[in-house]
Specification:
Two copies of one chain form a homodimer. With 205 residues, chain A is mainly α. The first copy, chain A, has two domains: 42 residues, Arc Repressor Mutant, subunit A; 144 residues, Orthogonal Bundle (Tetracycline Repressor, domain 2), CATH 1.10.357. The first copy, chain A, is built from ten helices and no strands. In chain A, helix 4 runs parallel beside helix 7 and helix 5 crosses helix 9. The structure holds a DNA duplex (30 and 30 nucleotides).
Chain lengths: 205, 205
DNA sequence: GCCATTTCGATACGACTCGTAGCGTAACAC
DNA sequence: GTGTTACGCTACGAGTCGTATCGAAATGGC
């Protein structure tokens, strides 16, 4: 009908949000700072995002798209690769300080919880599916009997990998280095083949 | 020398903190609220805790002591038990809203990070060691070759269990129910025996 | 029992953030 | 052009933060 919303402002705001996260960290990031840095009025921010948390989710979600799953020739290699790149991502100050913060706020804000699930979790879950498909083609894993079982296994593996790496890096606050990754991958490989056998023996799940 | 600090005030403050967490949640919890509820001046809070986060860590850490590892006769049973009780703990509003929040702030506050590690992580790590010892006595696992390897395995297992359950419950925001626990335990058992064999074959780690 | 010492409750403070409202101006669709 | 909408700017009340200051209260040492 009339003047459309400036898409330039959108990206300027998201860029400014990431830059401010790096510089000040989540707790000291304010809507005022972001607005000033983006060369935009504070009102413009509130016209597009209901809260600081929602803004940060969008600003950070894009960063997760850099996660890839290059084919390293084996399931072991693929897992070690994705763990490494995820750990690298978590070391960036933008993600490190804000990821836990938005999750924390989401425990009291259902809309934000859905927002995170769609923008980050579900959006990256294809990585697990892809790794699984590859392993099946290589004959390292067999396909699950029921489609529902397969989906639940993908969900489980995603929670285990993401959860373990996040916990190691941010809660235990110790490095996700080669030694840890090797050991974790060994654990996961053993677990996966165990799941494979268990679901082959019919009734299990 | 003179008037000692009131221990009654200490516990009144911690109780008030938990109660306020339940009622208002982390984001709306203020030092003013806690002080008023505890029947204490705001100044008294700041004399003992440097920040809201540090106060909440102490208030919540005690709750983790209710985690137990009753002997269910098998490693499988023990794991399922501890996963269940951890999930129950995470469902309580005091922990749910505040755990991620303090971790988030700890990414920019080294002192707080150490505080969390000592009060929560290290304090509960004995559960893993205990489960492992039991499994060895039952003959379900063998002891690691080097003591350093054993310690690293305990750290890894702790991160995997705690991380996966937290991620499932708070990030994916889906229930840690019996089906999930069964599947996760199966994964972990397979992984543990795999680690066992790998570390038996000498040089591995 | 008395006194020095330290904590305690109360209050006030400036600085900051929040989210919203009101305004005139600028940019686009038709 | 003209109407409609987004924009930048400013101001606002409410609320929080962490600190400073004060007299009163409680305790240990003598």
């Amino acid at each position: 009908m009339a003047r459309p919303r400036s898409t330039a402002a959108d990206s300027a705001i998201l860029d400014a949000t990431r830059a401010t996260l790096v510089e000040l960290g989540w707790p000291k990031l304010t809507m005022g700072h972001v607005a000033a840095r983006a060369g935009v009025a504070k009102t413009t921010l509130y016209r597009r995002w209901p809260s600081k948390s929602a803004l940060v989710v969008d600003a950070v979600a894009i960063l997760f798209d850099e996660l890839e799953l290059p084919d390293r020739g084996s399931l072991r290699g693929d897992i070690e690769g994705v763990v490494g790149s995820f750990a690298t991502l978590l070391e960036r100050p933008e993600t490190k300080t804000s990821l836990m913060a938005v999750v924390a706020e989401s425990t009291r804000d259902p809309a934000l919880r859905v927002h995170i699930r769609e923008a980050i979790v579900q959006r990256q879950k294809h990585l697990v599916q892809e790794g699984r498909d590859r392993a099946q083609r290589r004959g390292e894993l067999t396909s699950a009997p029921h489609p529902g079982t397969a989906a639940r296994q993908v969900d489980l593996i995603f929670d285990v990998i993401a959860g373990a790496v996040v916990h190691r890096a941010l809660v235990s606050a110790e490095p996700v280095d080669g030694a840890w990754t090797t050991m974790f991958t060994e654990l996961l490989l053993g677990g996966l083949s165990s799941l494979d056998e268990a679901s082959d023996s019919a009734s299990a799940y």
